[in-house]
Amino acid sequence: MLSYPSGMNVSSRALGVLADALRAHRKQVGTRWRRLSAGRQALLAIAYLRKGETYADLACGFMIGTSTVYRYLREAIGLLATMAPTLAQAVEIAAGKAFVILDGTLLRIDRVAMSRGDDRAFYSGKHKCHGVNVQVVADPAGRPVWISPALPGARHDMGAAREHGIIDAFTTAGVRAIADTAYQGGGPAIRVPQRRRRIDPDTGRYRRLSRAQKEVNTAHARQRGPGERVNAELKNRRVLRKVRSCPSRASDLVAAVQTLMIATR
Fold first, then answer.
1. Where is the Transposase Helix-turn-helix domain (predicted)?
2. Neighbours of 258 (CB within 10 A)
3. End-to-end CA distance of the chain, in Å?
4. Residue 115 pLDDT greater than 70, yes or no
5. Taking Cα atoms as reference points, which of 188, 190, 208, 189 lies closest to residue 198?
6. Which of these, 80, 82, 4, 90, lies nearest to 46 by C-alpha position?
């Protein structure tokens, strides 16, 4: 097999956080010998999450077996997932912000059982593809505050936010959130744009928004804009552009990426 060297930008802080966690875990379980050091294992996991390479490619690059790559990745991703903040911790941080941005995004998947109809829950009619729904909370500067576990892609954003407890948590803590029209009816904690007025019974057409309402929507869109940076950064990890593992593993992948994103901010 022929191989060639490859380059990748790696945050020293993210690498250090994961390497320290791996060293502590090895000490706890009493591991005596490994094919890779904690630092090299951390680099292996970051390379996988960043570039989404196959186990065979990683095994060739790090000169280990594919089964060893699988075990090392499961261990590192599991540790990163446990280090991700909880919703309660995120709400505590959000309470100190002027407002936060709430948005949902779809992560595509390809391993869905279609013969028994199990794919229906993962099919998004809006995006016309299979995926998982993830709720993202960002601060006004476009930095991640919290990213939810993955739900089937057919779930509506508002339903997903309620299932995760985001709406109730924001309402209780008095957090002000900016969101799009998908979160209409979220209560006083969620601010959404002005929607088109109802149909005029005289003309049978929708009444147009006033100039003041359009200006409000423009200002609202400017406030929501930085939240898209988190979605873009999340999908910048190639492993999440299209999740090729079992959909049940998507939540761990998202939590692991979230830990690295927070570590580098």
1. 34-85
2. 24
3. 39
4. no
5. 208
6. 80
